[in-house]
Amino acid sequence: MTLYTAPSTRLPTEWLKTKLTVFKKIKRAGAIVAAVLVSTFQFVSCTKNASTIIIWTDRQELASYTELFNLTHKNMKAVAIYKESPIASLPPEKDEIQPDLIIGSWLKSSKTRKFFSPVGYLFDEEKLSKDDFYSQMLDYGILNNKQYLIPLSFNLPMMVFTEQNESLVENDHTLTPETVMIAGAKFNAQKDDTYTAIGYAPSWDMDFLYEATKIFGASYQEKGLAFSLNEAALNSTVDFMRQWTFNFNTSTATETDFQFKYLYMPKFKQVASGRTAFVFMTSDEFFTLSNEQALGLTFRWLVSNEGKAMVEDSLVTMGIFHNAHNKKGAETFIQWISNEATQTDLITRRETMNLDTVTFGIAGGFSALKQVNANVFPAHYRELLGNLPGEQSLELPLILPYRWPVLKEKVLDTYLQTTTDTALDLASDEYASIETLVEDSKRFAY
Fold first, then answer.
1. Rounded to 5 degrees, what angle do the CA atoms 404, 410, 411 make?
2. Is 0.85 surpassed by the pTM of this model?
3. Are strands 142-143 and 297-302 parallel, antiparallel or unpaired?
């Protein structure tokens, strides 16, 4: 892994300064909105019963989960309090009710470990079994050789297409960026030197480009106030995407013009339109489509050449707050929700209650429990029958800053959008390097 090796690819310096100024204004506005945000789950009075379990979470499903927990536990009650970013809300404000348990994304970073208590004893006391979980996900929850976080759910990247285009795809389960490129090129069609169909274009989706950098080995990781990355892998991704566009789609301008003309609808309609073969989605996006929307659609997991599926950065974990008033209650809730029978009930209950909020699986994703994915999910999502990545094929993210979504959008998306544009002269010296962008990202409020 390397840090800040300046590549030849650059962005306009003045443009960068403008973007940083605008972003700071957006962040100030966002702080005001967050300050007045009302909890979407349950109101908690200032008087807290000793048997109450206070859960801070960014997952809306916890409202329903705590309801079921309360129905099955007569001597204790769980209350879910919505926090847009639970980890950014720590430590609690003065006179604010402290959490006992925190469930959400972005809980793992060097700056957040101090807010959690080690939970390895739950396995030592056989309240949980390590064999039930994906081993890599348990390892993800380890900091300084101690288990601080318990995994709950995760999502995976995929390429979605219509069943009519199955002939374009040779593998029954996976696609790599290269095989997407080759299959997409077969779909391309022109009339009078104008494209009437383009199988897929790198410039259409920044999330796809970002996913490709992970597949190529960018290895993003928290470092100080910013992050480190493998710049050789990042630049290899840029080179690959530019050659894809040059060789099969003429130019980035051609791709974006085609997208503007034909692909102005939701992703599931884009492939159904017959104008393109593939769209990039994550598992939670695909499996929350209605039956009508998903009719005639299928997918392949997007993986590396080695068959590794990159687990989405926002996997959901659980941690006991270090100053928890009801530590035993937090332990009970973790033990309850990390149980195959409980998770089966949660999935079934959501379907039978016909809840207005459409969510996927457990806490918006696949379960961190292997047997739940193998035994329960295929019964509710038929596309998963015999089509789940194996444990050894999962690749977990490294430690990322809790503000990673902001950094990704403002640094990486900006960099990738510009450098993969075939109109850009990569040999120019008039552009800010990724090194400069990363360094300037330290200015963003942490």
1. 85
2. yes
3. unpaired
